[in-house]
Amino acid sequence: MASSSAKGKAPANGNATNLPYELPWVEKYRPHALDDIVGNTETIERLKVIAKDGNCPHIIISVGPPKHPFFARLMARPKGMPGIGKTTSIHCLAHQLLGDAYKEGVLELNASDERGIDVVRNKIKAFAQKKVTLPPGRHKIVILDEADSMTPGAQQALRRTMEIYANTTRFALACNMSNKIIEPIQSRCAILRYAKLRDTEILKRLLEICEMEKVQYNDDGLTALIFTSEGDMRQAINNLQSTNSGFSFVSGDNVFKVCDQPHPIIVQSIIRACLKSNIDDAMDKLNELWDQGYSAVDIIVTIFRVVKTFDEMPEYTKLEYIKEIGWTHMRILEGVGTLIQLGGLMARLCKMNMKPELFKV
Ligand SMILES: Nc1ncnc2c1ncn2[C@@H]1O[C@H](COP(=O)(O)OP(=O)(O)OP(=O)(O)O)[C@@H](O)[C@H]1O
Ligand SMILES: [Mg+2]
């Protein structure tokens, strides 16, 4: 990543103080080559092969597991996985394919651009017809980022364009919800699916950035960054930068202050109290979180995530806990986000470890 680290400094801009201005780290450390992208190894390998061979098919980069006819009916597609490298990979691919010809050879449109039928009819068609000198065997590329926000009408208008100009122009789409892309477009494209980044993959990148930025950190701080980012690299890097600029030291406490999430250590002590059927302790800790101003959703989401990775309870109890937490989460999302709901959950979790005879009347 030596190439990207130099890009953070802006050219001297005549600013009186002449302070070097800093890009946000997510942009400063946005990978410029497919090799620098972490995670989703198999998919990235496929992209590398395409970049080497040069014959890029129309592609859609989307998220989630492959569509299975049986599960597709049962399960809604995941709503989105931001910050895992979709846009970055498409740009890296285009750069690697076209090199210096990137500027003339690529048309990028994202959700901030007008992308109605007219744009497809005029701008995209005009670009597809344009004559450009490219390296041999390469094609022009139309990047449609956040393609799920294109209207079905505009997507319909793309169908024939994709076919007619396929010998000179290839399309690369990125989206979070592949079900928003109409079937005919899906059938014209190779679909690559990205999964959430693993903790180790995020850690690897964070360590690289910490080293390059000379960030002071401890293990607790990195664990907290990974916990709060939920597989979203953009969030992890942003939180790292905010914590570093706010506190100059990345520790667990500082990260949770910056991210404004309930501290998992407190939530762990709530779960421990529940496991001992100690409702008073559990309620005390719950009140503490509530008084700090966290909403019921913040609290229940953290309780779920803590229980999911909590090793101090038998598997059976964990399953029962997660079931109860799920019910309470549902009620909260239905609008009943009160302390009483959370208190009710505490009571049920405590009761689970008590002998049933105690409740006989
Ligand atoms: N796999 C990755 N490897 C290295 N850096 C990454 C990766 N994924 C994301 N990043 C970092 O996060 C930033 C955002 O990534 P990107 O724009 O590719 O996300 P995205 O998947 O397109 O998200 P969205 O769905 O919100 O558009 C990048 O600038 C980069 O710094
Ligand atoms: Mg994107």
TrEMBL record:
Molecular functions per Gene Ontology: ATP binding; ATP hydrolysis activity; DNA binding; DNA clamp loader activity
Domain of life: Eukaryota
GO cellular component, one term: Ctf18 RFC-like complex
The entry's keywords: ATP-binding, DNA replication, Nucleotide-binding, Nucleus
Stretches assigned to the AAA+ ATPase domain: 77-207
Record-annotated membrane-spanning stretches: none
Subcellular location: Nucleus
GO biological process, one term: DNA repair
SMART domains, per database record: AAA
Pfam families: AAA (PF00004), Rep_fac_C (PF08542)
Family per similarity comment: Belongs to the activator 1 small subunits family.
Protein name, per record: Replication factor C subunit 4
Taxonomic placement: Eukaryota, Fungi, Dikarya, Basidiomycota, Agaricomycotina
